Amino acid sequence: MDPLERLYRDRWVGFRNALAPIVGNADIAGEIVQEAFATALRARSQLRREESLPAWVWQIAYRAALRELGKPETFELPEDLMFLDPDRDCGLAAAIRTLPPQRRLVVFLRYFADFSYDEIADALGISEKTVSSTLTQARTALLNQLPTEAVG
Amino acid sequence: MTDILADRFAAIANQADGRDWRGVRRRARRTPAGRPIRPLLAAAFAGAAIAATPALAFSTSVQHLIGLNKPKHPAPLGWTRPKLIAKVTGLSFPKQKPFGLPMVTVRFTIGEAGKQPGTGITFGSYFLMHIVSRTGTPSRWVFVRASVPRGHYVAKAPIPHGGIGSIEIGGFINVPKGTSAANGTFFVPIVVPVAQN
């Protein structure tokens, strides 16, 4: 199976879930991911490093989301970047809200899109060390916010 | 360190699966690169037109809501704002997905009063739509781009608790300033009451 098709089958739901808080709608996020994979399929020859495939497709999807929102590609993440349905885990939703937007995105990429550290680094153009420290700080902050019985 | 957050996130992740690899291949064959994504929403058309004359006003609170609370280009004074009319031309209710919220698809037109939809809407403008429940609870704002300013738009939003009371449609209209384009935006809130059966 082609690696792009495998990535699609394995990670479509994760990509959609990570993108949904940015565009504010899971259906639109799904459409964007669909379009991003189509774009990646067309432009496949432009990918230089095969191991960067997930990050490359994510960047295509993220840029498409910003275009859809009418934002420049330097657009800062909105402060209300949140779960679409916070009622499903109020504690976690409230804890996530305390994180800065960029840190929230790293968390969403890690836990919703199932990105590895190096994939997050590739996708966001930051070092793997920065990803590691960002996630460590985010985890510490989140665990401090969550009720004790929920983290034991 | 055990990653104890993973289970919490896994439990709330939306598992609705919309994968369609054949669809991706079809798109790849026929879609030009860089095309703006258009939400492909339900096509059902229902309901008679409901119109409301807009009350033109600025709204910084809405800009704040969507993260645009630091506009780079203040709206120029003296620009004649068109009197825009929003008409809701159809409501449909897509089948609810597992773990999904109940949604409503709203079709609407925007244009100058007494003229065809699309008049008074400049290239690059965009609109915001949200549903206000009967108790006054609003849903999230949904963006609708007017990159093709035909005047006919479709948006999909979650139905807030309490049912649909009204639909509020606003917009950022690009306005000219001197010889450069799109230097200012206005927010035009248009409240469209909805009689839901």
Mind explaining what this structure looks like?
The complex is a heterodimer of chains A (152) and B (197). Chain A is built from eight helices and no strands. By secondary structure, chain A is mainly alpha-helical. In chain A, helix 4 (90-97) packs across helix 7 and helix 6 (117-124) packs across helix 7. The model of chain A has no long low-confidence stretch (mean pLDDT 81). The longest helix of chain B is centred in the N-terminal third of the chain and has 10 residues, at 21-30. Chain B is mostly beta strands and 197 residues long. Chain B is globular, with a radius of gyration of 19 Å. Chain B has helices spanning 5-12, 21-30, 60-65, and strands at residues 50-52, 84-92, 103-112, 126-133, 142-145, 152-158, 164-172, 175-177, 180-184, 190-193. Chain B is built from three helices and ten strands, in the order ααβαβββββββββ. In chain B, the strands form three sheets. Chain B has a four-stranded antiparallel β-sheet with strand order 1-2-3-6, with no helix packed on it. The chains are: A mainly alpha (152), B mainly beta (197). At the A-B interface, helix 1, helix 2, helix 3 and helix 7 of A face helix 1, helix 2 and strand 5 of B.
In short, what is this structure?
Chain A has 152 residues and is mostly helical.
Provide keyphrases for this structure.
heterodimer, A: mainly alpha, globular, B: 197 residues, mainly beta, 3 helices, 10 strands
Give unreliable regions of chain A as ranges: none
Sketch the major β-sheet of chain A.
none
Binned strand content of chain B: 25-35%
Q: Largest interface: which pair?
A: A-B, 50 and 49 residues
Q: How far apart are the termini of chain A?
A: 41 Å
SSE sequence of chain A, one letter per element: HHHHHHHH
Shape of chain B: globular
Low-pLDDT segments of chain B: 33-80, 177-188
Structural class by secondary-structure content of chain B: mainly beta
Report the span from N to C terminus of chain B: 54 Å
Portion in strands of chain A = under 5%
